[in-house]
Amino acid sequence: MKGGVALTFWLAVATACYPWLVYPLLLAARARRRPPAAAAPATWPFLSVIVAAYNEAAYIRAKLASALEASYPRDRIEVIVVSDASSDATDRLVADYGDARVTLVRQEPRAGKSLALNRGVAHARGEILVFTDANALFAPEALARLAAPFADENVGLVSGHGLYAAPRQAGDTDDRDAGAVANGYVRFEAFLRSREAALGVLAGADGAIYALRRALYRDLGPAEVNDLAHAIDVAVAGYTARFDPGAYTVEPPSAHAGQEFRRHVRIVAQNARLLQDRLPGVVRAARWRLLWALLSHRALRWLTAPALAWALVANVALLGRHPVYTLTLAGQIAFYALALVGLIAERAGLRLGRAALPYYFCVVSAAGLAGLARYLRGGAQAVWAPTGQIARDQRIREHAA
């Protein structure tokens, strides 16, 4: 009996560690040579920047400015904002922006981000489509760095990555912890994407900023996640994906861990449904590198919480059998104690900075399990509320209280 418990304990540890430790190490060993930086093309491609927006009045003018004032030829870019039945001033601000390169499309009634992107692409004139979030501001060189690799006809998608800004006020301790942890997570994701791209695939682009060859776009279903769907479609079609860390955006972090939990639950539920639909096509096309990346970078992460839970239960049952189990239990208790400190600090409004990592890791891991549960219940969500709006609503409620 004890032998079976020990086996399941180590299997649980391996399941929890593989996507976070083993997979990155395997990638680093497998993908040592990365693609060279793309040179400026002789002729810059025409870009259509597609922004799906729902009640983004607080950010939309700055978003338009960051796109239209970027270091990119003025006559080779357009911005299409699809308002998903916004009820604030988003539509008016876009319509009054005063630049012929900006197009406003209103989606009525509200139907969600994916269908909004379909509408935007239907109005696009560009040969390269850039997908981005309304509250994610482009770095000056971001669009040029996204566009340059498309000079290679084998490249179908180029992903940048979204960074998180510092809090707006010195007292926003939750934002500061969230920003510190989120940017650490972004750097980890950037490492994985850079190594996956060296293999020619990506287990999902960064939804804040990525570009797709127009010929590869196909309409999305209501609950399909565009950044994952497009990365899969590109590989199945026989094209290469690239990643450029210099193509980045900056956006506000989640206001608190609860908001991050809800966001991850929604994303995991949608991604799980998408993998159910797309993985058979990946196998039929024999895209084995992509399959490895999708299972390692995505699916196995969602099993972290149950694996950790069983590792703790089994570890208690194994106490006294060997000194190693005393050490592993002590390590788990210390980790969860730090997570509890993070929870208490957030509730008290205290700043922990990167020391909040164990708490946020537990939050994201729990969100993976909750997202899988939502997926199994058929709860993939089509409509969404943007992070900035959720944060503003939360502050309003706290102020009213």
Q: If you had to describe this structure to a student in words, what would you say it looks like?
A:
The chain is α/β, with parallel strands linked by helices. It has a single domain (1-34, 44-393), classed as Spore Coat Polysaccharide Biosynthesis Protein SpsA, Chain A. It is built from 13 helices and 8 strands. The protein has helices at residues 2-30, 60-68, 90-95, 113-123, 142-147, 173-198, 226-236, 257-284, 288-298, 304-317, 323-348, 357-376, 387-400, and strands at 47-53, 77-84, 102-107, 128-133, 137-138, 155-164, 209-213, 240-251. An 8-stranded mixed sheet has the order 3-2-1-4-7-6-8-5. Helix 3 links the parallel strand 2 (77-84) and strand 3. Helix 7 (226-236) runs parallel beside helix 8 (257-284), helix 8 runs antiparallel to helix 9 and helix 11 (323-348) crosses helix 12 (357-376).
Oligomer: single chain
Total beta strands:
8
CATH fold-level topology:
Spore Coat Polysaccharide Biosynthesis Protein SpsA, Chain A
Strand content: 5-15%
Specify the biggest β-sheet. 8 strands, mixed
Round the Cα radius of gyration to an integer and report it: 22 Å
Give the C-level CATH assignment.
Answer: Alpha Beta
The order of strands across the largest sheet is 3-2-1-4-7-6-8-5
Question: CATH superfamily, called what?
Answer: Spore Coat Polysaccharide Biosynthesis Protein SpsA, Chain A
How many separate domains?
1
Helix content: 40-55%
Alpha carbon gap, first and last residue: 54 Å
